[in-house]
């Protein structure tokens, strides 16, 4: 079966996250977005594990469901659907290897609470797992994978936002040049990478070493409303083993739903302090220095991929699943109305659209334009432009989000 999943999120126990991140709110926003399977996030944090065990009950094999739907939670009937949870977490591995400091963020997935407790206990012997939902540990990413497999032979590890400069497996600042260099003998146990907001599958298809590695996308949401910024459309059994088997054997992913990569905050090169954005060619010509102040330029994802690419732009490996580049519905509404995303007018129209048409992904990807036009002609025009790729792009760089909008419709961050 096909279902949409967002398997990289955080709980309110992670730093710089919303206090609204509760199982109930994730359940609600999963329905509003059209997401069938949501990662729990932070599955090694003891207090979050306690809350999850209290509030979740076994559902499909290796997945969980909310024990009790909250009374009075506003989910429009047009959006109501089952939402399941998969135990997930992100670990920040910071360590020395081959004479360099490495900073690699990894996603771990586990089939049951007993496995999550075992991994949490093992990690607590290395560093704190309770001070941050995404623990920062002096731990080799290869050893993290070994510990996850010790906790459960069915564990999965996926490198998170694989290309971002500072905290990723391939990041130009602290990363590696290959999966094998990072994971050594356990590299065959890494079946997928997360492309991150600043790259898309087409960019990754230029790396022949990633042939046979599944590309997945997730939101890395720090608040419930950010669920589904990116997501993965799976085509496999709705179960932990279905996902595990599909990733291990290939064929698990039918498509991904993507940010335009230019909207990611590390897509281009640049120096935010001086407001300078550069192309890879400009960075090289300037000896990787900011032309305004002479400081070091932050090399972005586009440049890093260019350095490792061994195929030309436009390459598509045989059998590679498609992807859909979307602008979030809240941005499109804000642009159509000419107001901010969080204004009363924009929020009211957002929920009116959901009530009358269905979930956000249905509206963005499938709803007939005539149906959307009956609710908002301006929004229908904006969605038509976004679907056809008629967009205006202002790329992000050095931690500054880019903007992608449709003509005459500015967006907000």
From TrEMBL:
<protein>
    <submittedName>
        <fullName>Helicase UvrD</fullName>
    </submittedName>
</protein>
<keyword id="KW-0347">Helicase</keyword>
<keyword id="KW-0547">Nucleotide-binding</keyword>
<keyword id="KW-0378">Hydrolase</keyword>
<dbReference type="InterPro" id="IPR016195">
    <property type="entry name" value="Pol/histidinol_Pase-like"/>
</dbReference>
<keyword id="KW-0067">ATP-binding</keyword>
<dbReference type="GO" id="GO:0004386">
    <property type="term" value="F:helicase activity"/>
</dbReference>
